[in-house]
Every structure is written in structure tokens, then in C-alpha cells.
Amino acid sequence: MQVSFTPEFATRVRKELNLGTDKIHNPHGGGNTYELERALGEDLLLTSVGWANSYYQDAKQYVDEWGIGWRSTEYNTSFGTGSYTEIVGHPLAEDSAITTYQAPNPDRPELYAEADWVLRTFKDEYFIVGVTVTTIFETAWALRGYERMLSDLALNPDLAEQILDIPYRYHLTAAKKLTQMGVDMIWTGDDVGAQNAMLISPKMWRYFFKPRMANFIAELKAINPQVKVAYHSDGNIYPIIPDLIEIGLDVLNPIQPASMDPARLKREYGDKLCFWGSVDEQHTLPFGSVADVRSEVLQRLQTIGKNGGLILGPTHHVQLDTPMDNFWTMVNGITQTSYAELEPGSS
Amino acid sequence: MEPLIQEIYTAVMEGKNTIVQEKVQASLAAGIPATSILNEGMIAAMTEVGRLFEDGEYFVPEMLISARAMQTGLVLLKPALKEVDFKSRGRVVIGTVKGDLHDIGKNLVAMMLEGAGFEIVDLGTDVTPEKFAAAIRENDPQIVAMSALLTTTMLSMESTVNFLKEAGVRDQVKIIVGGAPVTEDYARQIGADGFSRDASRAVALAKSLVVPN
Question: Among A96, A208, B144, B150, which residue has the fewest nearby CB atoms (within 10 Å)?
Fold first, then answer.
């Protein structure tokens, strides 16, 4: 099981578990105490190095060390108010800024102090994941501007590649270091899928992202052949799954069920891939009944989790609009369901 | 097709802003009616873009650059269209709802609707119910379109519809909704007039909801 949370939801769970207050929870893993994850009985602990740590900072407005501008925006749910941090400033909006841009330095020893502590303290009991998500595309569009980056991919491929290489090099350095230090898995990824189809064409993904990801995976496995690599993309990415398998991917994440059918993925790729995620957060977790949640967990265990190969949990950070009953039904369903209950015919 | 118009059509399909602008200027100078340039050069091209997107050949980057190219041409055509008292297909007020800053889906819908001959009033993101109501009063649109990306912000769609009812303006317009977590069921539940799953299908939906003039 692996579950991550928005800071506000983490606060709610901590309260229920009488864990007291903590500093602002980082859904990607960097800077957390792991009290919450361990109290829930999770199997994976995340430690992140890279641009993803810029999310969910505790300020109304800030500029991160990449020069990207952020703004906090509030939202309301029936369980309280929360804030998302949104990207509002792009240092590479002007073409002229690109060749002189300096990314932050990924070799700074302090970036790895937390991973060092996590590995020393927890490696024997937990599966340690080094997180370098927003690996290429996400950071690139945050630097450039979303629509500008998408246009560049279509109209100016050479310029696009200059920009893509900036976060690619940073996150590769970080991932290699984390692998050397002994993490069990490296989590990479970029959102290249939309709700019903890919955001960019499979051809475009193969041109810009496949060679980089292939090299990324190869370099990590050269350091440690046993290290596992996971790739995250929201939405529908059916067309490129064979490509990901081809370049050595071990784990596909997060299996957004409203976009890709978990049972179908198991049928088609279950012998070649492990899966991570799959509990729906667009409908089931926020809006479903307790029975819906329980039924979905059972279904996942019986299909995409059949014979193993599944790290089960919600597809994204648990959101504040999730009823606590649904949350506990999901967690208990994952940790307490017996094999006998999974036999066909038992309810 | 008139060669200059064909060149505009192709340039829109390929997302080539500069060529679109050049050829629009040239067409106007050659005395080609602005409405012909619009209908045969631009709307026809965007219709084909929509078809290619629905067929899975064009994706967001291709749709985006075509729509942008079309827009740069449209800016040059507007004065000429005004001169002949050109009536658009309908006016659409569009925005991403309160609490939500995501706009690419909304921008694509706006561009595709413009490419189909609609007039767009884009309110941007994080749009309050009050702002939607004010925009209806100021602009007299036929359609109000709302976008949301998240389950946590989607609920603003319902509060906006209710606010528009209380403000007495809901019945003046058709309301359409879209965005990743939005479904046909949710649209029905909140009393919207329609839902579409992508920018291209939004065009067909909008066309079906306006009375042709």
C-alpha cells in the first residue's frame, strides 16, 4: 500500500490518529517525518529531490530556486478550506532567456541529507522510493509556460529540446545519486495523458521523451541492476505502454481508472509490468459510498492485483473532499482483506 | 478554392501564423470578401482540425497552433467583417470556475468555438458566480461555458448555476460545462444544458444550442 495526501488531508488524518501537529506535509515525500505513513501501515516511504518539492510551500506567493513563480489559491470543500499552489511565473517565457539559463545545482550534498536519514533509519523495514517526478515535461513547461511549451514541441523542436534537457539533466543526476545511495525504486514521470486520449501524440512522445527516458532508466540500472523504476502519467497513455516496457520500465503509475481500465492493463501487460495506484479519485473516493469504495478495493485485488504485482492506493494525493469513512474503508480494505475474501463467490 | 484562400487554409492547418497573416492581408487587398476568407479559409480549416482531433490524429499541440494561427488571421479580418455588419454564430461567455486556475482546456474550447464562427468573451480563470452574472448582463450571450479541472473546484459549477438562477439571468442563456472530472450526469444534476468531453465536441454542442440567425 502507498498513500499520499494533500497537506490539509494529512492534517485531518493526523488529528484522527492523535498524532499532533507536524510541519506542512509534502505529498511527494521530501521533508516529512513519516509518522503518518507508518501509522497507516504503508509499505513505501518516499524521499524526493527535484522540482516537485516546489509544490505546496507555505506562502501566498513565492519564487522557487528555478525562478518559477507560484501563487496559492484557496478552495472550499464540505470538510474545510484548502490551498493549491499554482504556477504563475515562467523564467523561460522569452526565447532569449533559454541559452543563458542556469538550473539549480543537483550536486549539493544537502539535497540528499534526508534520503540518507531515511535509508539509514528505515531501509530494513520499508521499500524506499527516490522521487524525481516532473522529470522532464512538467518542469520544462513550468519554466516555459504550458501553451508555449506545447507550441514549441510542434513548431520548434530544437528549441523545445534545449528546454527539455534542463530538467532532464537535473533529475537524472539526482536519480543516479539516489540510486547509488541505495533506494529500492526511483519514481519518475510526466503528465502526458489527458482524460480520454494522450495530451501529445505517441509520435511526439517517442521523438522527445522516449530516448531520454530510455537513457534515464539505462543509467540507473547500470549503477544498480536491481533498482526498480516507476513512471507516472495521469490519464490515458495506452499507446506508449509497449514503448515503456521496451525501455525497461518496471512499474506503471498511477493507473487512473476513469481513463485506463485496470483489469485490461493486467491482462495485456501483467506479465511485464507492476502497477501502482488504481483507486479512483475522480468519482469513488470523493463521491462514492462506503460500499462503492470497498467494492472497488476488492475488485482491484482480484484483477490488477491478482498474483501480486500491485502497489495499491489512491491514484493521486488524497484530497480534502474525501469523507473519512471512505478513506478508512480504502485503507482497511487494502490492509485487512484476506485471500479467502478474494475467492469468487465470497462477497 | 481560390488559391489565396487555399494558402490560408493550409497555413491554419500547419499553425503558421506569419503566413496566415500575409495571405489574409493579400486576400483583402485582392478584394476577396472577408466572409469568404473567414468561412472557406479559417472556419473550414478549423472544422478539419476538429475532425482530425476527434479521429486521434491531431493532439493538443497541433490543435493549439492551428487555433492560434487562425486567431492571428481573425484579428486582421475583424475590421472588414464589422464593415459588412457580419453577425457571428452566437456569443459565448466562457471561464474557469472560482478556485480553479487551470485554463488550457478552457482556452482550447474558446479557440475552437471562435474557429467555428462564435464570438467569445473570455473571463479567464477563478471566475466567481457574480462575475459570470455580470458578464451575462453586459454581453447578452447565447451560451455560458464553464470549465473545471478538479473535483474540489467542480462544485463551483453548481453554485454558479444556482447564483445565476437567483440573479434572474439563468434562463437567458444555455449553460455548457466541461473538464476532466465533469460528466454528463453531473451536468444534468446541476441543471446545465449540455456537457462535452473535449474542445472539438464542444463546437457541435454549441451549434446545437443556438438558434441560427
Answer: A96
Residues 242-301 (A) with a CB less than 8 A from some CB of B: 281-283, 286-287
Pairwise CA distance, residues A39 & A227, whole Å = 26
Q: B76 and B102: one domain?
A: no
- Asked if A198 and B59 come within 8 Å (Cβ–Cβ), the reply is yes
Measure in Å the smallest separation between the Cα of A157 and chain B Cα atoms.
12
- The answer, yes or no, to whether ipTM is higher than 0.90 is yes
On whether both B107 and B38 belong to a single domain, the answer is: no
My answer on whether B34 and B65 are in the same domain is: yes
Note whether B95 and B196 are same-domain residues: yes
Which residue from A82, A200, A282 is facing B59, i.e. has the nearest CB?
A: A200
Please give the residue of chain B at the shortest CA–CA distance from A201. B59
Lookup: cell for B10? 493550409
CATH of the domain at A46: 3.20.20.210
Which run of H or E residues covers position A45? Answer: strand A44-48
Contact B172/B93 with Cβ under 8 angstroms?
Answer: no
**Residue ranges in chain A assigned as alpha helix (H):** 7-16, 35-40, 113-122, 137-144, 146-155, 157-181, 202-208, 210-223, 241-246, 262-269, 284-287, 290-302, 324-336
- Rounded to the nearest 5 percent, the helix, strand and coil shares of chain A are 45, 15, 40
Is residue A44 within 8 Å of A2, Cβ to Cβ?
yes
Taking an 8 Å cut-off on Cβ atoms, the answer to whether A321 and B64 are in contact is no
If one counts the domains in chain B, the total is 2
* B15, closest residue in chain A (CA to CA): A155
B108 and B74, same structural domain?
Answer: no
Interface list for chain B against chain A, based on CB atoms closer than 8 Å: 15, 56, 59-62, 64-65, 68, 99-101, 104, 107, 126, 150-153, 155, 180-181, 197-198
Domain that holds residue A14: 7-253
With an 8 Å Cβ cutoff, are B151 and A75 in contact?
A: no
At position A296, the amino acid (one-letter code) is E
Q: Is the Cβ pair A154, B62 closer than 8 Å?
A: yes
| A233 neighbors A272 (Cβ within 8 angstroms) | no
Alpha-carbon torsion angle B53, B55, B57, B61, nearest 10: 20
Task: State how far residue A44 is from chain B, nearest Cα, in angstroms.
Answer: 26
Single-letter amino acid code for the residue at A139: T
Task: Supply the pTM of this predicted model.
Answer: 0.94
CA distance B91 to chain A (A): 25
Q: How far is B183 from chain A (nearest CA, A)?
A: 10
Q: CB-based contacts of B108: which residues, under 8 Å, 6+ apart? A: B60, B63, B64, B67, B199
Which pLDDT tens digits describe chain B residue by residue (213 residues)? 899 999 999 999 999 999 999 999 999 999 999 999 999 999 999 999 999 999 999 999 999 999 999 999 999 999 999 999 889 999 999 999 999 999 999 999 999 999 999 999 999 999 999 999 999 999 999 999 999 999 989 999 999 999 999 999 999 999 999 999 999 999 999 999 999 999 999 999 999 999 765
Q: Is residue A298 part of a domain?
A: no
Rounded CA-CA distance A321/A75 in Å is: 10
